[in-house]
Specification:
Strand order of the largest sheet of chain B: 3-5-6-7-8-9-10
Structural class of chain A: alpha/beta
Radius of gyration of chain A: 22 Å
Largest interface: A-B, 60 and 72 residues
Distance between the termini of chain B: 24 Å
Strand content of chain B: 15-25%
Order of helices and strands of chain B: HEEHHEEHEEHEHEHEHHEH
Strand content of chain A: 15-25%
Number of strands of chain B: 10
Helix content of chain A: 40-55%
Oligomer: heterodimer
Strand order of the largest sheet of chain A: 1-2-3-4-5-6-7
Shape of chain B: globular
Largest sheet of chain A: 7 strands, mixed
């Protein structure tokens, strides 16, 4: 049996499963004790499986959001859209493959698609910098936003990044400026913006293409101001407190639904989207189509006014 | 929601005016207290140092400046009227770490005498009426939570409504992580407010001071028409330690300093604190009071 990728919280379950496989390899015929053990172990596994996947804490969900087999932006584009045309480059310096941008058609509706573009294997991950954009990526995204605005095409974005890349060149090329300009532009585009959080929502690098008129989030996706590890490092002076930090940061889809930052949570199969990628992608497709239909009743002025009002309403403060 | 409703809703969250209250005055320091310059370790008599704008007369190092002192140094005497003075951080996530967020807020209020990490208000610089915002690093590293984001966004909306330019003096460690996503969303909220102001043809000048990082740099701080920085200010998105850990290489000399930002074309100019007021007055003259600005 090929070695499976085990998330931290799955390890006890996977260990038991491996034990069962070992047991079953033995000659069970004429060994009633072993048969009893096999059946007991199978029962224990089922019990543990239910327990493992029904009581997910925030940190477990972060692990699921980062699972290597989790469907990526590329899979959503390939499965949901037709007549896809990718565009390239920021017209200033380069083409950042950590961001996907282009035109595509969703159930007959032409749209502009943007997404953090994590790779599917080592080679594509190196090319796409594991989905962590440089300023060039955000500048490409802004080109796409302007095209959408100019030609009246709704924007659909897919969020899946650990964060904007914290490197020397990224800083020197104006990472902060690129993100800030993207935020300003996205707040003002006169077309519907539908956002889908599919995996990681790492801070400003995710937010740069991560707010709009309807925000969908997969059940196990997360969106956070800072990674649980970094938060743990800074506030608890101890990187091993990431589990607690994740809980404290209230970064899950359901937390954010409660806060009014997310509008809709798309459920995932038991154990995470990678257990049935096709079904999850199809559900996301339906939800995006419904959101676009809902948005189509608003005129451009109304869309922008609603978006600004929505942003203004986010925040809890005293006076 | 109809557009009319939107305007009504916006009316409701307009700034509150504190009356003719001047900015809080800096606490008095007794005579004969000596401190060491943060740049060259040169001994400085604290009262002299403060009245000299916290710039070392020896090496020119620009030290952190409390917001009330900054306001006094920048505006025409007596012209500052604070708005939203009572807005203050809440604790929406009931965040507990080594220290609870509630505790951090109490300590910050007590130590700084401020209600939040930014002071906003109406002022005049060189007779130009404007809206001024000044951040104060003493207040939880001038991090941006809901209250800071709201104050920034209301300041821009006031300037938009009354067709005034905005000057913002920034300093920040970034987003206030104890407020989780509420804090991150302030980046979008403030950027949208700056965009509305800019689209109305109004001027915005930002003064980046040491240090300006993270979610503040990557939102309203750098969206200005003209970006001015103080000498030696560290400005960036990711902090230097994180960058060093990520690339596992030593950082180049001068990385993220205002001087390097200038040579990479990321800011417009570096202006020493002693000349900041007259410089802003001159600059605002070119950018107009807003009356000449064209709505886009």
């Amino acid at each position: 049996m090929a070695r499976r990728y085990a998330m931290e919280f799955e390890r006890p379950l996977f260990d038991l499963e491996a034990k069962l496989v070992e047991l079953k390899r033995l000659d069970l015929s004429g060994n009633p004790d072993l048969l009893v053990e096999v059946s007991a172990l199978s029962e224990e596994i089922e019990r543990l499986r239910a327990e493992t996947y029904t009581r997910l804490c925030a940190w477990d969900r972060v692990q699921i959001a980062r699972h290597p087999d989790r469907p990526k932006t590329q899979h959503y584009i390939e499965s949901l859209f037709t007549d896809v045309i990718e565009i390239h480059g920021d017209r200033a310096y380069g083409d950042d493959e950590a961001i996907w941008a282009g035109f595509a058609t969703l159930s007959g509706t032409p749209v502009v698609v943007l997404g953090h573009n994590k790779g599917t294997d080592t080679k594509s991950n190196v090319r796409r910098n594991f989905g962590s954009p440089h300023p060039e990526g955000y500048r490409k995204a802004m080109r796409a936003m302007r095209l959408a605005d100019k030609f009246g095409l709704p924007i659909v974005t897919f969020l899946d990044t650990a964060g904007a890349y914290p490197g020397i060149e990224a800083e020197e090329h104006g990472q902060a400026l690129a993100i800030a300009e993207s935020l300003a532009l996205l707040s003002a585009v006169r077309v519907p913006v539908v956002v889908v959080g599919i995996g990681e929502g790492g801070s400003g690098g995710a937010l740069a293409i991560g707010f709009g008129d309807h925000v969908l989030m997969l059940e196990n996706a997360y969106f956070s101001v800072i990674s649980p590890e970094m938060c743990s490092n800074i506030l608890y002076k101890d990187p091993s407190q990431a589990r607690i930090a994740a809980q404290q940061l209230k970064l899950t889809a359901n937390d954010l639904l409660e806060f009014g930052i997310v509008d809709e949570v798309v459920s995932e199969p038991f154990g995470g989207a990678h257990h049935d990628a096709a079904a999850v992608i199809a559900d996301v497709g339906k939800a995006v189509v419904a959101a676009l239909a809902q948005m189509s009743s608003f005129g451009p002025d109304e869309l922008v006014a609603r978006r600004h009002e929505r942003l203004n309403a986010i925040g809890v403060y005293g006076s | 929601m109809s557009i009319a409703d939107w305007f009504t809703a916006r009316e409701k969250r307009r700034y509150t005016q504190a009356g003719e209250t001047p900015a809080p005055v800096a606490p008095q320091v007794p005579e004969g207290v000596w401190i060491a310059c943060g740049g060259c370790r040169h001994p400085l008599e604290e009262r002299e140092f403060i009245s000299g704008g916290r710039v070392c007369p020896d090496c020119g190092h620009h030290h952190a400046m409390p917001a009330p002192e900054r306001i006094t140094a920048l505006v025409d005497a007596g012209s500052f009227v604070e708005i939203d003075a009572d807005l203050t951080g809440a604790d929406p996530l009931l965040f507990e770490a080594a220290k609870s967020y509630r505790q951090s807020l109490d300590t910050a209020r007590e130590k700084s005498g401020l209600s939040e990490a930014v002071i906003t208000g109406r002022a005049r610089i060189g007779a130009t009426p404007l809206v001024l915002g000044v951040m104060d690093f003493r207040f939880i590293g001038a991090s941006m939570g809901s209250a800071v984001g709201e104050k920034v966004s209301r300041a821009f909306d006031l300037a938009t409504a009354e067709r005034m330019p905005v000057v913002f003096v920034t300093a920040s460690g970034g987003a206030r992580m104890q407020e989780g996503m509420y804090s991150l969303m302030q980046m979008a909220k403030t950027s949208a407010a700056v965009k509305r102001h800019g689209d109305a043809g109004l001027a915005y000048v930002s003064v980046l001071t040491n240090p300006t990082y993270g979610g503040v740099t990557a939102s309203f701080a750098v969206l200005a028409d003209v970006l001015v920085a103080e000498p030696g200010a560290m400005i960036g998105f990711a902090g230097p330690r994180l960058v060093e850990q990520t690339i596992r290489k030593k950082l180049p000399k001068g990385f993220q300093t205002a001087e390097t930002m200038l040579s990479h074309g990321m800011i417009d100019e570096i202006v020493p604190r002693s000349r900041m007021k007259e410089h802003l007055a001159l600059l605002l003259g070119y950018l107009g009071s807003g009356a000449q600005g064209g709505e886009r």
